[in-house]
Amino acid sequence: MMKSDGSKSLPDLIGRPSWFGSAAGISLISASAGYGASSALSMLTGFGPWITSTPLSLPLMSAGIFLSASIGVAAYHLGRRREPMATELLRAINTPAVSLYYQPIVDLNSGARVGAEALIRWEREGKFESPERFILAAETAGVVTRVTQRVLQMAADDAAFVTHCDHGARPQHLSINISVQDLQSTEIISELRKLMVKTNLPASCFWIEITERALLEGATTSEVLAAIRALGMKVALDDFGTGYSCLSVLTEFKFDILKIDRVFVSQIETGSTLMIEHIIKLGQSLGLEFVAEGVETTAQRDFLRDMGVRYAQGWLYSRPLPVMSYISERGKYYAPAVNCTQYQAGRLGGAA
After folding, report:
1. Distance between CA atoms of 162 and 320, rounded to whole angstroms?
2. pLDDT tens, 281-295?
3. Model's pTM, two decimal places?
4. Is the domain of 23 the same as that of 143?
5. Same domain, yes or no, for 228 and 255?
6. Which of residues 48, 81, 114 is at a domain's end?
7. Residue 33 pLDDT exceeds 90
């Protein structure tokens, strides 16, 4: 039945269930998901003449409306999931979802903690996202310097607790990673100065970690590294031997510490020690200190100590810990090796 203005009455609409289901469904989908979902619904409602001729017309019509709404909701959430990871990270960066964990660095001779590496963690959708993945996403999007700024702010808040050492010994050190893009501008120097002012700690308490990849990108790298060392902070080369040109970077740039990658440490168990012995001897010839990463067994610990490596970190000692857990275990010793009475008596010199 037609109204005087040419529109159809409600009874007339009800008499055409396939038209009603199609119109309502397409309208709902168009509002929530767009053309793609509408097209899917059109395939279903194309069977209109058959649907209206069966006793199941009303249930099928309802199913069509339900399906259209479901597709719309699914398309909406798919759209949200396609949001760049870097965008999500920046939105979360100042919330409790992003925090720092601290992995102890241990003196192999005494078994005592002498410092910690600050490691960023992001709890996303109920689980921790891979740092390698989200840092790479931030680098690709060109926003990783904002992540570094936040890391330095959180490290400054925790530094007094993490670096505290009992018995009047020198403060322990705090190791902080910076990115490739941080080294492409002198802005990082201003951020590190802020860190020193806020913590009121000696510059020597801070170790700044960089990777080999960072050394090959950006013309200002050498200048920035020199400025960091001029502040009095130590510079550590991370992932040594796994990158591009490990020998050339040691002669071209100035470092204080060499971090031995877990890849080489794990080979100790198999007896394949030629590479790690070469790295250690090379570093010793240049007067560098060492931190071995990924130490998980006493055999690895003993080999490294016998080779003259002073520091280590890994699950043999501790996993990375949230700051309160790290503080609660401060002063812990890990199976001191030999002649450690002087250390336990409170004369540990810290991370010289």
Report:
1. 13
2. 999 999 999 999 999
3. 0.73
4. no
5. yes
6. 81
7. no
pLDDT at position 206:
97
What is the extent of the structural domain holding 58? 10-81
321 and 207 within one domain: yes
Number of domains in the chain: 2
pLDDT at residue 44, as a whole number: 42
Phi, psi of 175 (to 5 degrees): -100, 130
In the block, tokens 């130590």 appear at 234
CATH number at residue 139: 3.20.20.450
Q: Report if residue 249 sits inside a domain.
A: yes
Residues 95 and 239 in one domain: yes
Q: What is the pLDDT of residue 166?
A: 63
